[in-house]
Design a protein that fits this description.
Blueprint (H helix, E strand, L loop, with lengths): L6 H8 L3 H71 L5 H28 L6 H15 L8
Length: about 150
């Protein structure tokens, strides 16, 4: 007796009205898509930060090795300059030339440190494009919806 009932009639009794299902599924889909978008943007932000850290490590390694080599060369050149100046002007004692050259090198180093600190304060380690996209999406997802407006 129940086998003579068409399938379309049987399933209509178990399902809620068609309007509710479509709105619910649309809202669920939008929420799922927004969550997936935020997850992807967080993953992109993590990737960008890891990439920046890796590039910074490589640059710092190169700078450290180059800085150590240059420092050794500067020390040797300073000794050479002191002895050259003593040879050219023997009236100034050797310790005087070491003091003069040491003071000049210290002043130059202080200027370079000051310039480096200023540049470091201007550095922004966050990928601005990714962060701004996340902010915009968060604003969009948390904005209260109003009917008739965007």
């Amino acid at each position: 007796m129940a086998t003579n009932v068409p399938d379309s009639c049987r399933s209509a009794e178990a399902l809620p009205p068609a309007g509710e299902t479509s709105v619910t599924s649309l809202v669920t889909g939008i929420v799922n898509d927004a969550q997936e978008l935020l997850k992807q943007q967080v993953a992109l932000l993590k990737h960008d930060i890891r990439s920046d850290i890796r590039q910074t490590k490589e640059a710092l390694t190169s700078l450290a090795v180059g800085g150590a080599t240059a420092a050794l060369g500067a020390i040797l050149l300073s000794f050479m300059l002191v002895h050259l100046l003593y040879w050219l002007v023997p009236a100034v004692p050797l310790w005087g030339w070491f003091g003069i050259v040491g003071a000049a090198v210290t002043i130059i180093g202080a200027i370079l440190i000051y310039a480096g600190v200023r540049r470091m304060t201007e550095l922004n380690p966050l990928p601005e494009n990714t962060v701004e996209a996340m902010r915009e999406n968060l604003r969009w997802t948390t904005r209260p919806s109003t009917s008739g407006s965007r």
